């Protein structure tokens, strides 16, 4: 009665092992082992040789193999090695039947790929215990395989999502770059050139210029905190406030009522932007800004700096001066006030405005380029002008960082008064 109850419990046991292959050249031995394993509720297959067993294994994937060691033509060790070479996701637990018990023999079996051993004649209780031990291994392997399949399936879905996002971001990058439609503009007495290079698909930097009237233009450089999509969306919105195509929406200008416009003081415009940003836009972002109005007739540039890096003026003799008054970034402090300052550019002189992605560019040793590095590069490149200057500057920056992709967005404006300019 006790044995019958145990057999029922074994049959009802939810084993991960479902199919077992018995390999033995002895028909009687196969029958004995088959009868014992059938009581565990397993599907039993039989093979009288290693070659026949390999044919079965190539067609199906038995969860458990019980193979005799000593067989003609192909012994159990050789069969085990060949079995382990069969590709497949599932793991077959391999038990060698043997009368050998020496440690060297066991080592040979383990090297061949066997998991466990049973000595002949087979004891029913020991066989059951070995099978249940193997079942735990097979169960863990099946669970792991299922989790791997789930992970692989998830990764495939994520890859599809990533590919879709990547495609969208590439389009977003094109749109953001289109905000800087002209990278170079000849203004008669002067010329202006723009650089915008995001560290990722899209970034938080933006540079641009807008006409004020026949004799004046506006320049702006923006750097929104953070990186990625939300920063890029913010730059797009800010570009609308300083639009070059819809001057009636440009907060830096005042309509004269006759279709013409006059510039507002940059400090006043920046203060208004700070109030608008804190009052109308719900975001964790803030941004730095340098806003400039340029008089093309006399070379006077009026600027307000709101947390943006100090601009540089390069004189005709090549010397470089750092200018600016500092100022708080926009979107941090309510009712912040801002100052404005002026510089006068003579023929052959230029103004260099840049984001912190340039002066905070680090060497492999972690040393920042800094103001000195900006000055050094401008001095080296004093005879190069326009977009060629900006391209050369980025090349030098890449050499300094020892990499082509930067950790932060890189943007700049260079305003140059021509040597032939006739200023009043």
TrEMBL record:
**Does the record carry Hydrolase as a key word?**
yes
Q: Which residues carry this modification: 4-aspartylphosphate?
A: 68
| Cross-referenced InterPro entries | Bact_Sigma-Reg, CheY-like_superfamily, PPM-type-like_dom_sf, PPM-type_phosphatase-like_dom, Sig_transdc_resp-reg_receiver
Q: Where is the Response regulatory domain?
A: 19-135
Keyword Nucleus appears in the UniProt entry: no
Instruction: Write the record's keywords in alphabetical order, separated by commas.
Output: Hydrolase, Phosphoprotein
Sorted alphabetically, which Gene3D superfamilies does this protein's record hold? Answer: 3.40.50.2300, PPM-type phosphatase domain (3.60.40.10)
* Taxonomic superkingdom: Bacteria
Q: Which PANTHER family match?
A: STAGE II SPORULATION PROTEIN E (PTHR43156:SF2), STAGE II SPORULATION PROTEIN E-RELATED (PTHR43156)
**What is the name listed in the Swiss-Prot or TrEMBL entry for this protein?**
SpoIIE family protein phosphatase
Q: Which species is this record about?
A: Roseovarius phycicola
